[in-house]
Amino acid sequence: MTAPALVSIEGASLVRGGQTVLSGVSLAVRPGRIVTIVGPNGAGKSTLVKVALGLLAPDSGKVTRAEGMVVGYVPQSLNVEPTLPLSVRRFLSMAAPRASRPEQEAALERVGAGHVLGRQVVQLSGGELQRVMLARAVLRRPRLLVLDEPVGGVDMAGQAEIYDLIADFARTQGTGVLMVSHDLHVVMAATDEVVCLNRHVCCAGHPEAVSRHPEYLALFGARVANSLAVYTHVHDHQHLADGSVGGTEHGHGPGCSHHG
Amino acid sequence: MDEFLARALAGGLALAVVAGPFGCFVVWRRMAYFGDTLAHAALLGVVLGALLDLDFGIGIAALSLTLALAVGLMQRRRDLASDTVLGILSHGALALGLVVLSLMQDARINVMGWLLGDILSLDWFDVAVMWGGGAVLLAALAVLWRSLVAITIDEDLAAVEGHAVERARLGLMVLVALVVAAAMKVVGILLVTALLVVPAATARRFARTPEQMAALAVLVGAAAVVLGLGASWRFDTPSGPSVVVAALGVFLASRAVPGRG
């Protein structure tokens, strides 16, 4: 009784300038589910996000996206040209022309940026801009939310709030979420499925299972991984009988035990 | 007022109206060097036009369009930086134009006229073409406007939100090429980019929306045309440089006024 995937990538490979950026990567995002990509720098996380969005075509493999789907996207960073006069209100309207002023205010309020509506985008701090971009993506009422490090530049207290908000959005609206994160602690607590990427999918599945996977441990180190185990138990009630964890074609290490 | 001054004013104002909004995109998308490249290459268009016995306007427009598309397509490959590509094309085309020109024994091309512009030589037909062509260019810009503002913020974000990124990007380059080709007759190859960049840069500090900035740039450009042509008439200075000096004067004066952007 699994809902059809909003976006599914099967065996995608991508070579750029003679370098293999992605190799046989598979993942699927279903409605209401949060899939988080973790991995070291240069692992191809942002590239994979662009493949999922249809901005980059893989050299081989298949990408299927639900037809006519509204997507909300928060890129890793946004450098708005300082010569461009642009109010936050206009910036929000561009993404969601039909959203009313009160809706805009409510969306900003929810991401903790209620005070910036009248400001110019170039005057925002990094953390404020990140919050505004999230509000903007949510205002589109997306079926799929794609977030490339959504809390970059956001203060610690704000990060947890934002992850809570994303989780709440997925649960209540049934939005599928594909997210890249460096913040392993919070990822483990606020996600249904983790895809550990290092050009290929090292392992994928329930956060707790992934955090014990030998390839994951090799990538992030046992110390980091152990500190995470404390957090994961909080969340394991979210992973019900469903147990679908992204297929088996990506190959698992011998210690991998996360298949349901 | 003499009729040829009236024609010059009419032509110059047409240019200011078109250059304002396009100049904003030149500033926002950092295309100043692109404008320079097109202008430099236009001399080659003039020379080729003379060789093939075509109208100068057609020679320039054809070369500018070809070049704009070439730059647009080369920018997709990222093995050379954009300004490097422009540097190669800009000076390559200018040098080629000068070499071919020197080989044409019987060519009667007024190089100074092309380099500095000659707004006082406009006839009423030229003026009508500038207003008519300008209206078409602005209409095309209006069609692309929302997508262009979106890709100025972020091309990936614009693509995800359903904008035709490639169409807007190449469309803008082609339109700017045509604006440059039209403006050249008025202010000349050397100064054409100034008419795009200076009014838009002046408008920036007083605008809170993209549209306000475009409208203010039109006003600044129009003021520069009127002041510059007036000074040119009064002091018998060359018209193109006088207009650009007037624009520079407005820009500098505006820095003394507190902005609101």
Question: What can you tell me about this protein's structure?
Answer:
The complex is a heterodimer of chains A (260) and B (261). Chain A folds into two domains: 1-69 and 143-150 and 172-251, P-loop containing nucleotide triphosphate hydrolases (Rossmann fold); 71-142. Chain A has nine helices and nine strands. Chain A has helices spanning 45-53, 88-95, 101-110, 126-139, 156-173, 184-189, 207-211, 214-220, 222-232; strands at residues 7-16, 19-29, 34-38, 60-65, 71-74, 144-148, 176-180, 193-198, 200-205. In chain A, a hairpin with a 1-residue loop joins strand 8 and strand 9 (200-205). Chain B has one domain (3-188): ABC transporter involved in vitamin B12 uptake, BtuC, CATH 1.10.3470. Chain B contains eleven helices and no strands. The longest helix of chain B is centred in the middle third of the chain and has 30 residues, at 124-153. The chains are: A alpha/beta (260), B mainly alpha (261). The interface between A and B is medium-sized, with 22 and 24 residues. Chain B: Keywords: Cell membrane, Ion transport, Membrane, Transmembrane, Transmembrane helix, Transport, Zinc, Zinc transport.
